[in-house]
Amino acid sequence: MKIAITGGTGFVGGHLARVLAADGHEVGIIARGSDGRDKAIRQLPSVTFHASGTHNEDRFFAAFAGCDVVAHCAGINREHGAQTYARVHCLGTQCVVNAARRAGVKKIVLVSFLRARPNCGSGYHESKFAAEEIVRASGLDYTIFKPGVIYGRGDHMLDHLSHAFHTFPVFAFVGFKEKLVAPLAVADFVHVMQVAIVTNRMQRQTVAVVGPEAMPLTEAVRRVARAVGKRPLMFPLPLWFHYAFAWLCEQTMTIPLISIGQVRILSEGVADPLPTCDEVPDDLKPRRHFTAAQIRAGLPKAKAFGLTDCRWSNFKFRKAL
User: Fold this and answer.
1) Is residue 33 a contact partner of residue 7, using CB atoms and an 8 Å limit?
2) Is 285 among the domain residues?
3) Which helix (H) or strand (E) holds 5?
4) pLDDT tens, position by position, 243-263
5) What's the pLDDT tens digit per position in 174-203?
6) 22 occurs within a structural domain
7) What is the tens place of the pLDDT at every residue in 130-188?
8) What is the 3-state secondary structure (H, E, C) of 107-158?
């Protein structure tokens, strides 16, 4: 099969591209090219890279030529300049749908978010749900996946927690009420996506995907700390502090330690699907637990946050070049 992946150099898109390419499929990855987490992916013999933003319908059309399926994995977890939720999630998805129709693509597989829904006061959640509605109304075959917190090599969760534990002697939990998370291994999620793409199962379904073990967020954080080999002082702080801290991170860091959207996500928990979602078929349900071995396999190289993580530092460095 020939498959296109938007956000194909990102975390989920990159893992999916590698799995599909290893299975012998022809893969086109579409991305702006700014994500350098897996530069080697562009060199795989069955992978073609197409440079494009999320709103360029003509470039999508060219990249989708001859494709059977488009996996739409592109997305953001914070707004920055022109990269707004409306532009990336809504306009971007509409451009993908329009280009897919023009190119004769048979199916779209969309990556949304577990708690995405309308009228909830969160731009992230509402824009993700709007993207779902665009795909559902496209007239094309589709499968919409609503995953919870995904972890693995190249993610934000393990990456940022690890760097935080190597930088700070303390760690503040989000709010005073315990919320549940069900960490989902990226390998499990990508396998479910692969089945939907290649075998066309879960047609016209909106499927929630979470890990096999729900636990308090505090327990998940402690497991990562133990895997990293750190024992920071941990305590809860109110939501207003985390929203303020997230705003500061968004203003000062190239990739924020935490974003405003992520604070909202963690404040309401990431374990319970919405009642309107379909379930993953029994034979495809995620089985990898959030164990020390799984965590260590996804950890980045041990290091602390530094000046290179600051937006102003990178700007000065680029100016110097």
Assistant:
1) no
2) no
3) strand 2-6
4) 999 999 988 888 888 999 899
5) 999 999 999 999 999 999 999 999 998 999
6) yes
7) 999 999 999 999 999 999 999 999 998 999 999 999 999 999 999 999 999 999 999 99
8) EEEEECCCCCCCCCCCHHHHHHHHHHHHHHCCCCEEEEEEECCEECCCCCHH
Secondary structure class of 224 (helix, strand, coil): helix
Which backbone phi and psi does 190 adopt, to 5 degrees? -65, -35
Please state the domain count of the chain: 1
HSE-CB at 19 with a 13 A cutoff on CA atoms is 19
269 occurs within a structural domain:
no
Q: How far apart are CA 81 and CA 123, in angstroms?
A: 15
Q: Which two tokens stand for residue 248?
A: 């500061």
- 0.85 exceeded by pTM: yes
CB-based contacts of 199: which residues, under 8 Å, 6+ apart?
A: none
Both tokens assigned to 306: 């530094």
Q: Is residue 113 part of a domain?
A: yes
Q: What are the Cα distances from residue 50, in Å, to 60, 92, 195?
A: 9, 16, 24
- For 242-303, the three-class secondary structure string (H helix, E strand, C coil) is HHHHHHHHHHHECCCCCCHHHHHHHHHCECCCCCCCECCCHHHCCCCCCCHHHHHHHCCCCC
CA neighbor of 102 nearest in space, from 66, 142, 144, 143: 66
Q: Which residue segment(s) compose the domain that 55 sits in?
A: 2-151+182-209
Structure confidence by residue, pLDDT tens digits, 24-46: 999 999 987 655 566 677 778 88
310 phi, psi to nearest 5 deg? -90, 140
**CATH classification of the domain holding 88:** 3.40.50.720
Q: What is the mean pLDDT of the chain?
A: 91
Closest CA to 107 of 75, 136, 127, 86: 136
